[in-house]
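In this section we walk through a basic example: taking a raw amino acid sequence and producing a predicted 3D structure, encoded as C-alpha cells. The instruction is simple. Fold the sequence below.
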Amino acid sequence: MSEHHYLACDLGAESGRLMAGHLCDGRLRLEEIHRFPNQPVQEAESLRWDLDALQTAIEVGLHKAAQTGVDYQSISCDSWGVDYVLYDAQGQRMQPAFHYRDPRTARGVKTILNRMPWESIFAESGIQFMPLNALFQLGAEAPERLASAQTLLGVGDAFNHWLGGKPALEVSMASTFQLYHPMKRAWSEALVAAAGLRAEQLPELVPSGTITGTLSQGLMERTGLGAMKVVATCSHDTGAAVAAVPVSVDDSGSWAYLSSGTWSLMGVERAAPILSDGCRELNYTNEVGHGHSIRLLKNLSGMWLLQECRRAWEAEGEAYDYQALTEMAQKAEPWVSLIQPSHPRFLAPGGMPERIAAYCQETGQPVPASKGAMVRCLLESLALLYRQSLQDLETLTDQTIQTLHIVGGGSQNQLLNQWTADALQRTVVAGPVEATAVGNLMIQAIALGQVKDLHQARAMVARSFPTTTYLPLNASSGHAAWERFASLPADA
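The resulting C-alpha cell sequence is shown next.
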C-alpha cells in the first residue's frame, strides 16, 4: 500500500506543536516536527494572544518539516475554541487578539443579556453559558472597532487562512462562537444581531474536511515545502480530539469521551442536539463535530488548576514536573479537602494555591497542608466532577454509559485515570495522548479520499496507538466524599 503524509498544526492554550502523520497499511504513525510555547501577553489588566509569535513558531516548524524531505500532501491547523481574530478591510489581522480569560468578558455578558434573554440564546445556539464565549466577548468589543472589521475567524481558521486557505470558518469552530444554529446549520440571525455584527461580516461556513486552498507561494519559498492542500478539518481542537476516540461502530451509545487538557470536555456523540430546558438548566452544550455530528458535552475545569499551582510554585523557586506532583498526591491522605473545580473563582490566572486554600477555609474544610495534599485535593475533586457529569449525561440522554474514553494530554495522568474509574464505577480507557493531532490528520486523510469515513478512521486509530484500561476499584471509599462534594458551592 502506498504511504500518505500530512501535517497537523495543533495549537493549545499552553503550547503548540507541528506533527507529521504517516499513513501506511491501515496504520497512522506520528512524528513530532516542532513544539513551541504559547504564552499570552498581559498588558495592564488585559490578556491577549501573541499571534505573531505563534505564526513565527509555525513557520519554523514548516521549515523543519521541509528538511525531512517528505512529500506532504496536506496541512491543517486546529486550536482552542471561542476566541476570534478580526480582519480589516485590507484583509489584515486587527490587534489585539483577546484571550478568553480577559476580564472584559464580564462586561460583555451584561451587554448581551440586555439585548437577548439567556433562554433565547440557548434555544438558538444550544451552547452552554460561559462568560468566555465569543458571543459575550463580542459584546465587550468597542463598537467602532467591531464596525470597522470586515470579517472574523477562529484562531485555527485564521492560521489555515494564513497558510493559503480561503477565509472560511469551519462549523466545529463556528458552533463554539454561540452564533450558529445547529438545527438550521447556519448562522443565527438573532444571535448575530445581538453580537453587534452585520450579516456581511460573517465568513463562509464550511463543513469539517473541506479543502480550502493550497499552501501559499510565499510559504513554499520561505520554508522549502512543496505544494500541498490546506484542509479545514475540525478547527476546534475538541472536535478533532473526539474524531480520534478509538471506538467501533458496535460501541454506539455506550461510551462517553473526556478530552483532558487545560479544560476537561466530557460528553457523548449524538446525531442531533438536545435543546431542552433540562439541558439548558444543567448548562450542557451542543457543539458540532465531524460530519455534522453533535458533541453533547460540558466544558469543565481540567488540568488548568494544577497548571496554575505548578506555575505559582515555580515562581516561588520550587519547580516540579507533573510526575513528581502526582507522586506527592498519591502519598497524601485521601478525601481530606475538596473543591468545585468549575467555580468561577478558579477561572482567572494567578494566585491559584491561595484561592484553593481560601475556598477550603470558607467551606469549613482543612486547608491543604502540603503541596501533595493540594494536588490530591485537585485530582480527587476532578474525579468527582467527572462523576457528576456522567450522571447528568445519562439523565439527558436516557442512556447508560459503560465506558469513558479519556484522550489528550491529561490521559497520561495514571492516578487521575484510576480515581476517575473508581468515582464513576465505570471502565476508563486512556489514549491516544495526541488525540487532537491524530483526529486532525485522520480528517485530512478522509478529505483527500485516502480513508473512507470516520468509522474507518477510528478503527485505524485503535490499531495505531496503545491504550490503557482502568477498571473500577474501591467502590465505597469515596461515598461520603461524594455527598460532601455535591453540597459544595459551585457558583459565586
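Looking at the output, two observations stand out. Residues 4-237 form a domain with the Nucleotidyltransferase; domain 5 fold (CATH 3.30.420.40). The two ends are 58 Å apart (CA to CA). In the next section we compare this with other chains.
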